[in-house]
Amino acid sequence: MATVRTRFAPSPTGFLHLGGARTALFNWAFARRHAGVLVLRIEDTDRERSTPEAERAVIEGLEWLGIPWDEGPVRQSERGERYRTAVAELLRKGRAYRCTCTRDELEERRARTIAEGRKWTYDGRCRDAGHGPDCGPHTVRLRVDPDVRLVWDDLVFGPSGQAGSEIGDLIIQRSDGHPLYHLAGVVDDVEMRITHVIRGADHHSNTPFHLALYRALDAEPPAFAHVPLIVGSDGKKLSKRRDPVSVQHYRDEGYLAEALRNWLVRIGWSHGDQEIFSREEIAQLFDLAAVNRSPARAETGKLEWLNQHYIKELPAPALLAELQPFLAAEAGGPVEPDEALARLVDLLRERSKTLREMARLARFLVVPDEALVFDEKAVRKHWKREIDPALADLHASLDALESWNEGDLEKTFEQVCARHQGLALGRLAQPVRVAVTGGAVSPGIYETLAVLGKPRTLARVGRALERIRVA
RNA sequence: GCUCCCAUCGUCUAGCGGUCUAGGACGUGGCCCUCUCAAGGCCAAGACACGGGUUCGAGUCCCGUUGGGAGCGCCA
Questions:
Q1: DSSP at A438
Q2: Which residues partner with A71 through β-bridges?
Q3: Which of residues 120-149 of A touch strand B (CB under 7 A)?
Q4: A99-148 per-position pLDDT tens digit
Q5: Residue by residue, what is the 3-state secondary structure of A127-153?
Q6: Which nucleotides along chain B are within 7 A of a protein C-beta?
Q7: What is the CA A276 to C1' B43 distance in angstroms?
Q8: What CA–CA distance (Å, rounded) separates A326 from A335?
Q9: Sorting pLDDT into bands at 50, 70 and 90, what band is A48?
Q10: Which of these, A331, A334, A346, A467, could form a disulfide with A366 (CB 3.0-4.6 Å)?
C-alpha cells in the first residue's frame, strides 16, 4: 500500500481560521495515524490578498497549535508554469476549449436561466466553436461529458456524486492566463501524489468538477473526506464580523494550544466518551470513519473547561512562561519570575479559566503598593468603621510576628478574632483581602499574605487602616 | 430559484433494529466543603424536529414535511 499523503492548503488570509485549523489538525492526525506525510501548500493565486505577512500568520498559527507538516510550504504563485502547461495539454487533446463569452454575456444568460427557475450551467456556446489561439480574449473551459457519472465514495459522507450535466463546462483558466483554484489544486494534488484529500464540506459539491479534472488529466483521483463545517453560535456560517474566527484570537485571550487543539478535534469527531486527548492520542486515535456529517456550532464553554484543565496540569516553569506576556500586560512591563510568583501561580491554577484571567488575579503581587487598583464595591462592603480595632490589632500582631508562614499567620488571625468578641474569621479576612489585593477574590488569605511578604502586607494593611479612619 | 448535504439534551456528542424507562462531557440548578472566589464531592433538571411507512420490534431503515448548511464566480 502506498504511503498516505495528505495536504493542508490554506489561502493566506492574514490569520489561521478556526475551520482551517481543524482541517489541518485532521489532516495531520490522519497522516500520523497512517505513518504518512502532510504537505503544506499555500494557495496564493489570488494576488491581492496574498502577502508574505498573511502567509506568515497562517504558518505561525499552525506552529503555535502544534501541527507540524512534513513537506512545503509549496506556493502556488511559484508554479504558474505547470498550470499553464497542464491547460495547454488539455487544449491539445481537445479536453478543453477556448471560450470567448464575456463576463457580461455570461452574467446576462445566467440571470435569465435562474429567473426561469433552472440551475445555471454553462450553455456550451463556445464548446464546438473551435476557437484557436488567436481568437482574442478568452477563457479556457473543461469539456465535461454530460453523461459521465462523477461519483466517489466519500470517507465521511459515503457515496456521493453528480452527473456531468449538473456541472457543465467550467472555466479552468482566466482570460488573464491565470489558472482557477480548482485546476491548480487538482494539478498540485496529482503532482504531489496526494492520496487523501481531507477538506471542508464546502468543497463537497465542487468534488464532481475535480473528478472531471482528474479524468481529463488521466490521473487517478485520491480518496476524499469532507468534514462538516464549523458554524457560529447562531447556527450560521462563521462570520469574521460576528464570531472570533482566528486561532490568534484565542491565543491572545489566554487559551493554551493544547486546549484549543483538544477542543477543535472534538468538534465533529469523537472517540467513545473520551473528552481529553493529548497530542499523541489524537495522532493515534483519529479516525475519519468516526467523523460526523452535520455542521457543528463553535460554543466556547467546553473550551474554557479544557483550558482550565490544561492550566491545572501544566508544569510550573512552562505555565510561568506561558503567563509571561499576560503578566507583562498587567504590570506594564516585564516581570521577573521569583519563588513568590511561582507559588501564587500554583494557587491560581484552580481559579483561572484563561491565562489572561490568571494574570489579572496575580496582578496584586507584581505591582507596587501604590498601583493597586481597588474594587470600590468591595471597599464599601468590607472597610467598615467597626473593623478598625480588630484590624489595628492584626496589624500590630503581624508586625510583631518574626516568622512569616501560613501556619503562624493562621494562628495570628485566630488570636485576633478571639480578642474581639469572637469575631468571625471572614469579617477580618475580607477587609484584609481587599487591603492587600484590592478585591474580594483571591486564594486563601494566609497563602496570599505568605506570598506577598511581611513588609508589603503591613504597608497595605496600614494604608487601609488610614482610609478607614478618615472615612 | 435549482442541485447536493445534514437533523439525539442549551452546546459537543455516544447510539451502527431488540441490551434505550436514550449514555458521557460542558453548561445550568441544588446540597456539601468554606475566610472570598474557585477547585473538589454528591444530587437534579434537560434530547431522539414532525408526519407517514417497512418490521414481531425504529433514535437506528425508507419516503415526505419542516428547519439548517453548502454549491450554483474569469474567488479560494
A1: S
A2: A39
A3: 120-121, 137, 139
A4: 999 999 999 999 888 888 888 899 999 999 999 999 999 999 999 999 99
A5: CCCCCCCCCCCCEEEECCCCCCEEEEE
A6: 1-8, 10-14, 23-27, 35-39, 68-76
A7: 25
A8: 10
A9: low
A10: A331
Residue A10 contacts residue A49 (beta carbons within 8 Å):
no
Cell (9 digits) for A446: 494566609
Mean pLDDT of A43-51: 76
A240 as an active site residue: the answer is yes
What is the distance in angstroms measured between the alpha-carbon CA of A61 and the sugar C1' of B31?
A: 44
Nucleotide nearest to A157 (CA to C1'): B5
pTM score, two decimals? Answer: 0.94
Neighbours of A27 (CB within 10 A): 27
pLDDT digits (tens, 9 = 90+) for A144-188: 999 999 999 999 999 999 999 999 999 999 999 999 999 999 999
SS3 A163: strand
CA dihedral A212, A217, A218, A224 (to 10 degrees): -50
Q: Residue A271 CB closer than 7 angstroms to strand B?
A: no
CA A388 to chain CA centroid, Å, is: 51
**How far from chain centre, in Å, is Cα A292?**
20
Rounded CA separation A107/A104 (Å): 5
Tell me the mean pLDDT in the region A62-75.
Answer: 96
Residue A269 pLDDT more than 80? Answer: yes
Reported ipTM: the value is: 0.94
Total residues belonging to chain A = 471
Residue A49, pLDDT above cutoff 70: no
Q: What is the DSSP string of A46-101?
A: -TTT--HHHHHHHHHHHHHHT---SEEEEEGGG-HHHHHHHHHHHHHTTSEEEE--
Q: For chain A, how big is the Rg over CA atoms in Å?
A: 32
Q: Which residues pair with A159 in a beta bridge?
A: A153
Coil, helix or strand at residue A225: strand
Catalytic residue among A119, A236, A237, A240: A240
Give pLDDT tens digits for A206-229: 999 999 999 999 999 999 999 999
How far, in Å, is the CA of A457 from the C1' of nucleotide B36?
18
Strand B and chain A: which residues 385-444 have CB closer than 7 Å? 424-426, 429-430, 433, 440-444
